[in-house]
Amino acid sequence: MQKLTNREYKQDEYHLHLIETKKFKTNLVALKFAKPLDRESITKRALLPFVLQKGTKTYPTEKELRLKLDALYGSKFSINSGKKGENHVITFVLDFPNDKFIPNAHNLVKDCLTFLYDVAANPNVENRAFDENVVDKEKETLTNKIKSIVDEKMQYANMRLIDEMCKDEKYSVHAHGYLEDMDQIDAQSLYETYEQMINEDALDIFFVGDFEQDQVKQVIEDVFTFNRQPKTEIFRSEPKQVNEVEDVTEKQKVQQAKLHMGYRTGITYSDQDYPALQLFNGIFGGFPHSKLFLNVREKHSLAYYAASRIESNKGLMLVFSGIAPDKYDQAREIIIQQHEDMKAGNITDEEIDQTKKAIIHQIKENIDRAGGMVEFFYQQVIADHRVDTQDMLEEIESITKEDVVRVANRVELDTVYFLTAEDGGEASE
Amino acid sequence: MNKIEIPRVNETMYHEKLDNGLDVFLYPKKEVEKTFTIFATKYGSIDQTFTPLGKTDKVTVPDGIAHFLEHKMFEKEDGDVFQYFSERGASANAFTSFTQTAYLFSSTNSEEDNVETLLNFVQDPYFTEQTVEKEKGIIEQEIKMYDDQADWRLFFGTIGSLYENHPVRIDIAGTVDSIYKITHEDLYTCYETFYHPSNMSIFVVGNFDLDSMANLIRENQQQKSFEKPNGIDRFYGDEKDTVYKSVEKIKMPVSTPKCMVAVKEKQDQLDKDHILKNELVRDMILDLYFSKSGSYYEELYQQGLVIDKLRIELYLEESFGFTAIGGSTTKPEQFGERVKEMFMSIKTGNIDQDDFERARNKKYGELIREFNELEGTANTFIHFHHLGIDYRDVFDVLERITLDEVSQIVDEWIDEDRMTMFMILPEDE
């Protein structure tokens, strides 16, 4: 494996991460603004990416902004926001061709960074307010997006599971915001939220590509002249105890029911047991060779998909399956039984060996993508825990069956959420 | 092996046609971690009526059989093939499209063993009455999952309005009724006809040794014997150039309506001398008007006719083709009518030379970016190879095309009689 280095420069205004690689024909730069999740400001923060993409001082309309990107040889740009553990992260990302593959291009790095800085730092603002028409229009767009979540059944079921499971925790705050907040948002209050983000959030800047370190670092420092004073600390979650398992059933017009189950692992990215948790999850439901897939789908033909995934910053494990409405009892029992088997040590050497290889493959495959590299290192920022790729692979290799069984016994079922058809498919309690 | 150089991106790949007819593409890239391989047959959901290998009369098999066959390739007498990949930490998968069935894996070690496993399992069918019956429940759940997805229904609803007889109008997975009619004898008939090496290609890209991989594939194929191929007769029914229905709507339990407008291709625009140029032109024109820098997108968004972004689809194959613009909209009827007008004004209007050059530069940057993605590169080369096209030519075609040619191509492409609109409306209204 080739060594992947993230050169990290901790400066007062932002932390800069330079990742040099010859894998790509383009360079990628990402700005990540983070703040702990907070119910009061979340809808405004969710709205910001929409409004900021609609223009800057230099490119006052979305069309002008997008025309500039076209002129930068089809550079790809987006702003998005989401949850990272119990933080809300707003990400600006720009992917642009490396000059060496574009005949007659000069200074593409500088032009692209200048564009990105412009979008982040010079929005289209007058008198400490965004353009009112733009804000109204984007409120409408976000409103429609929130309303259509219910049409995406898998996403909807995930959201509802977390609503129920993490009721009293920051983690249940919806990263996409709330309909009931819309009326109170105006061009001024949104600008205040923007100011907080640009001045106070924790900011990490990543640059990935084939470049000359010193030169690129200099360009970045010349262009990114924010003059900011970060005050925000990234939030790191504490584990929570399970009292008793809660069951929630909801009915809608669906053909396929969704059985989603939430577990607490009590283990986050910086925990010593984290590699063992990855292995536990891999054996349980992370892969097509996992117990869930083999038993729920292959052995009993109950589902098209049945899988689990860990939330590594919050300490959760979530199970997803799409089943026929009348198979609830059977599917639930099989899923719970797989966990019980693992707690009792019913794990073969072959399962351990396969899963180790699969996780190592996943880690390596992830860093074959520029976005994957950024996420790999940003995860470490969020967790405040630095691990080298090589060390990470060695940690995975060293896990024993006892480690996995110990972790299996730490993992506890918290909430079972069932979205089912209106006619039939009763969940018997 | 023949060397294939792509100087624009400084890359080299290799090609060889083996004695049994199999096309082998090898593209070594030492700087990445993984190896990705795709083994594909030119056989998809549309190939339902054909003359089986060694027979003289044509047969018609049940809807969804190519996809069903894909599922069943993974099961052998001694169990599931996934396990061989899993044992080496590799991830294997497969997909069926209208015109192709493909088996693939990605791995970060033992790539030669994995290629051997891939070749062997796809070239060794094992279908029994019992294994075929068992799969029906799983595929039924897959079909029902798609039935709940409004975007999927929008897409297939649109195609069903464009085409009256061509089998592209049938859902790739078939229907719950049709899959229950599939027998293991049907699967063998399809397999023997379409999985002949002369109808297949393999593409290996990533971190592997060129000579030893080439030898492995050659030797593997020399050990196997295949019947002599006699070409495959495929029948797609009589289809006129005009659309089947110019407007159609369905109701679904969604909160936001959706609409899609599509243009059906004239059959004479789909031969292999035109298809690459036609695809580039359609792609650039749709981008010029309907991407976020496009004037029509701006109008639709500002007038509240579309929520967020447009969905753009472009399919050009030997026996069918269409382009489509869709979106979520609170005013589906108005959206559809306006997009149809927009298509017509693209046909009758003039394209500005500067706009065209901008679109060309943007496309150039996007072609460069495509080479970041090993999977995408492999898929694209195989797709065009199956159409009889060398995808390397894309750079030349893009650089040489003139505005006059573009105007002619646009005039042939768009026509009132070949347009349809399809809507999904909420049930309560």
Give your account of this protein's structure.
Chain B: InterPro entries: Metalloenz_LuxS/M16 (IPR011249), MPP/UQCRC_Complex (IPR050361), Pept_M16_N (IPR011765), Peptidase_M16_C (IPR007863). Chain B: Residues 63-168 form the Peptidase M16 N-terminal domain. The complex is a heterodimer of chains A (429) and B (429). By secondary structure, chain A is of the alpha+beta class. Chain A is 42% helix and 22% strand. Chain A contains 14 helices and 13 strands. In chain A, the strands form 3 sheets. Chain A has a 6-stranded mixed β-sheet with strand order 1-2-8-3-5-4, sandwiched between helices. A 5-stranded mixed β-sheet of chain A has the order 9-13-10-12-11, sandwiched between helices. Chain A has a two-stranded antiparallel ribbon with strand order 6-7. In chain A, a hairpin with a 4-residue loop joins strand 1 and strand 2. Chain A starts with 5 loop residues before the first strand and ends in an 8-residue tail after the last strand. The mean pLDDT of chain A is 94. With 429 residues, chain B is an alpha+beta fold. The model of chain B has no long low-confidence stretch (mean pLDDT 95).
